[in-house]
Amino acid sequence: MGLLERREKEKDSRRMLILKSARTLFFAKGFKNVTVDKIARFSELGKGSIYLYFNSKEEIYAQILLHDIDKFHRQARSLLNKKKTATELLFEFAYLYVDFFLNDPELFRILMAFMLHTDQMNLSEEQYKKVIADMRRSIDIINNIFQSGIDSHEFPSGIDIKYKQFALWGMLNGIIALHIFSGSESKRKEKIRSTVKSTLQVYINGLKQG
Predict the structure, then answer these.
(1) CATH topology (fold) of 1-54
(2) Which tens digit of pLDDT belongs to each residue from 56-104?
(3) How far does Cα 139 stand from its chain's mean position?
(4) Contacts of 37 (CB under 8 A, 6+ apart)
(5) What is the DSSP string of 105-153?
């Protein structure tokens, strides 16, 4: 490995360390109570080192969301390559979404904080639009699944896809929010998946009936 390549690898490692440390602090203390100084101390770096990689606390927050939203999008996008019914794909998407946050509850709390308290985060318009655009990219996968169901005559052609996709996304977030930080951790996954399964089945049955 050459000197330049080694330096780039070190930069990437330090950048990811900052994001990982900041995510932990945002989860534990909330967005308003975290400062760049605290992120620097938790990362065991100087404050100046943080500013070599990020311009502000807001940019760090946005980058945490963008990194993990993109990770989920790549996993969810692969579902569209499977030769399965739209109903099967909706269940797979739902379980993938649930498991993604069960494996990283910090991310779910950060995402909910962004959705509910955007006005308190002082994100630039560019940062805000980028996060929203990337979230929409993942939600639109539900759109593609619904469209495949319409094309195969599994779902009625007259359904409002935009309305249905956001209703489903909201339902999943609501179920996760109810259970992800409560009850026995050993039974949490089973409970959330069971609730998603029964609720989604009712939802799809209604969908098929038009």
Answers:
(1) Arc Repressor Mutant, subunit A (1.10.10)
(2) 999 999 999 999 999 999 999 999 999 899 999 999 999 999 999 988 8
(3) 10
(4) 47
(5) HHHHHHHHHHHH-GGGS---HHHHHHHHHHHHHHHHHHHHHHHHHHHTT
Given 1.10.357.10, 1.20.140.10, 3.40.50.300, 3.30.499.10, which CATH number is that of 56-208? 1.10.357.10
Q: Which residues contact 126 (CB under 8 A, 6 or more apart)?
A: none
As to burial, measured by CB atoms within 10 angstroms (0-12 exposed, 13-18 middle, 19+ buried), residue 182 is: exposed
Q: Compute the mean pLDDT over every residue in the chain, rounded to the nearest whole number.
A: 90
Contact 68, 107 (CB under 8 A): yes
Q: What is the pTM of this model?
A: 0.87
pLDDT (mean) for 165-185 = 89
Q: Which residue has 């992120």 as its token pair?
A: 39
Residue range 106-161, pLDDT digits in tens: 888 888 888 888 887 788 888 889 999 999 999 999 999 999 999 999 999 989 99
